[in-house]
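Re: the request from the purification team.
They wanted to know what the chain is likely to look like in 3D before they choose a buffer screen. I agreed to run a prediction and write the result into the notebook, where they can find it.
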Amino acid sequence: MVVLHLAAIQKNPFSGVCAVVPQHVNAQQAFATVALVNLNVEVENVENQFVCKDVYDIKNLPSPFNTPNLVVFHDVYQPSYLKIFKYLKSVRIPYVIIPHGCLTTGAQKKKWLKKKVANFLLFNRFINGAEAIQCLSEREMESTHFGKHKFVGTNGIHIPTERKTSFRTNATKFVYIGRLDAYHKGLDLLLDAVKEIADFMRENNAALNLYGPDYQGRFANVENMIAERAIGDIVTLHPAVLGEEKKAILLDADVFIQTSRFEGMPMGILEALSYGLPCLVTEGTTLGTFVSQNKAGWSCETDASKIAEAMRAAIQEKEMWPQKSDRARHSVSEQFAWERVAEEIVSQYRKYV
């Protein structure tokens, strides 16, 4: 089976979609003939990769990628996709869409009027013409009300050799690493939660460290949110981190925390779990059930008071951190290792060829 992944990503290491698309392509090459077409720039570390600007370039790809059995679109709101999907329909090549969370009810509420008009005028035909919508989690699938067929084909993670081996005994270091989109990532809820239990955190030497890139004034916005809540002594905002620096920060933390309102499948949480770092997550991250069922951390409703309760519990349950660390590492290895994930996704693709 020949699978052609199609994306319009930039070289942005802070974007989950940009980071995960090459990993989908590389992992699936063990089970099918797979290539990536990117409509913007060449991305690193991908075999069988082509940069195409329009449908005519795709027609002229080398065989067998000019007549694939299936095309997989990453993301939805790319105007260039509209011509390409029409061409695929004309030559009877089926396609699947991975919206990466952008078709969920929560995501559609963000800039809702603009999306409603765009869907009606442009994108509904593209979405509904797909053989299936590939959702990254059960929760995303439940809250996605587009398309005729849906299935779960999640993101994976490469399990690192390093892992968390020790924890603080007289303090708690919460860490968040990700984009500073306050609404999407629920940073307003997280900071409200910290304000609610600020005195308890001070008494127990607990602190929250946030790491994320500055984009469209979001860094300053989060700084202002911290100042408005008078929690600057226990919450510190840092610039974005990558590579070895990011790994060192994760291994030094006690609890990874993410309180998103909605997600597809957040790579930051999977990465933290893979290092054996207990995670505190909301239901909106899509990983709340996974974390609670596997006793890999703490999960709660996407609500500031519930987040505060979960943070209080995490601080009080220091003796459970090593056990939760072992469960985090084991469970993510069992269910989200790329080899297992890719094989299951390719088996799903065969149903639509």
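For the purification team: The chain has two domains: 2-156+337-350, 172-336.
Please add any questions underneath this entry.
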